[in-house]
């Protein structure tokens, strides 16, 4: 039960916004994943496709891993929960997007 007035909630989202956005796609993070070397976070799909060709963090240039960058990228459940809580429509929109995807591609999965 959230007893905070609406306005206070909105201010918090504004303050936190920069930490919730993925610098690779400029959207709210989906399946937030954090580089354990520097704790920068991105969408899982964004950072995974990024490390296909680059082993350095897109924000701070730290080397993620010499050979297997995926091993140093961990899903960040706390951050993702926070994003979904602060941006309740995100989950809904994402689910709708996926539903559309499955509707258009009935044989996938
Ligand atoms: Zn992204
Ligand atoms: Zn970094």
Features:
4 helices, about 110 residues, flat, binds zinc ion, 3-stranded antiparallel sheet, mainly alpha, Herpes Virus-1
Report what the structure shows:
With about 110 residues, this protein is mainly alpha-helical. It has one domain: Zinc/RING finger domain, C3HC4 (zinc finger) (Herpes Virus-1, 2-Layer Sandwich), CATH 3.30.40.10. It has helices at about 5-20, 45-50, 75-85, 90-105; strands at about 30-35, 40-45, 75. The protein has a three-stranded antiparallel sheet. The longest helix is centred in the last third of the chain and has 17 residues, at about 90-105. It starts with 5 loop residues before the first helix and ends in a 5-residue tail after the last helix. The mean pLDDT is about 85. This is RING-type domain-containing protein. InterPro entries: Znf_RING (IPR001841), Znf_RING/FYVE/PHD (IPR013083), Znf_RING_CS (IPR017907). One of its GO terms (cellular component) is PcG protein complex. Keywords: Metal-binding, Zinc, Zinc-finger.
Count of all domains:
1
Share of β-strand residues = 5-15%
Distance between the termini: 37 Å
- Average per-residue pLDDT, rounded, comes to 85
Helix content: 40-55%
Bound heterogens, unique: zinc ion
Q: What is the CATH architecture assignment?
A: 2-Layer Sandwich
Can you tell me the residue ranges where pLDDT is under 50 for at least 5 consecutive residues?
none
